[in-house]
Amino acid sequence: MKEICFDEEIYINLINVIKECSLVVSYDNTEIFNRFAIYMDGSLITVSDETPLWYKKIEAVLESEQEIANGAEAARAEKVFEELEKKHFG
Predict the structure, then answer these.
(1) Exposure string over 32-64, b if 16+ CB within 10 A, otherwise e
(2) pLDDT of 2 higher than 70
(3) Model pTM?
């Protein structure tokens, strides 16, 4: 699977879109055109078993925000991204 690298601002913008829009349908065309996630009112409704690697960063931030809302201590975004890159790229 190819890795697509985006500027961090793109991740932030997509996260804000997911939170603000009533319906977000996420597609990827890294290898083939594929719908992989649907959000309604900021909540994940369904996600494919196969998601693009760039989406894992979005997913990690959203999960982290949910954990913080549930009382967990906040982690720095750079640390989360670094851990994801180690996990997926060695």
Answers:
(1) eeeebbebeeeebeeeeeebbbbbebbebbbee
(2) no
(3) 0.61
